[in-house]
Amino acid sequence: MNWKKELQVAVQEERTVLGMKRTLKALKASKGKFVVISSDCPDTKSVKYYAEMAKVPVYEFDGVGYDLGATVKKPFSVATVLVK
Predict the structure, then answer these.
(1) In this structure, are residues 27 and 82 in contact, taking their beta carbons and an 8 Å threshold?
(2) Measured between alpha carbons, how far is 30 from 80 in angstroms, rounded to an integer?
(3) Which of 5, 6, 38, 73 is most deeply packed, by most CB within 10 A?
(4) How many CA atoms within 13 Å lie on the side-chain side of 50?
């Protein structure tokens, strides 16, 4: 699966959840296709733990939060993105 292409399609179709708190909430409910984490995410262990419990794959983004925010067309830093 090419997660970068799938992320772009999800952004266009507005099927994303932005932010660590909302991502964790969705993972605890076992929702989502995959999670993308920026390299400077403050709590990667929790996100990876709940993603493993929900059997949702986690991909690490090469850039920092501002780069991930630009990728999902937001003018601010984004630590995590969950694709529904």
Answers:
(1) yes
(2) 16
(3) 38
(4) 19
3-state secondary structure of 18: strand
Global confidence as pTM: 0.92
Bridge-based pairing state of the strands 58-60 and 16-18: unpaired
Taking only the tens place, the pLDDT of each residue in 44-80 is 999 999 999 999 999 999 999 999 999 999 999 999 9
pLDDT for residue 1 is more than 90: no
> Please, which residues have CB within 8 angstroms of residue 50's CB and are 6 or more apart in sequence?
24, 27, 28
83, two tokens? 């694709």
- CATH number for 3-83 (one of 2.40.100.10, 3.30.1330.30, 1.20.1740.10, 3.30.70.1350): it is 3.30.1330.30
Distance CA 26, CA 50 (A): 9
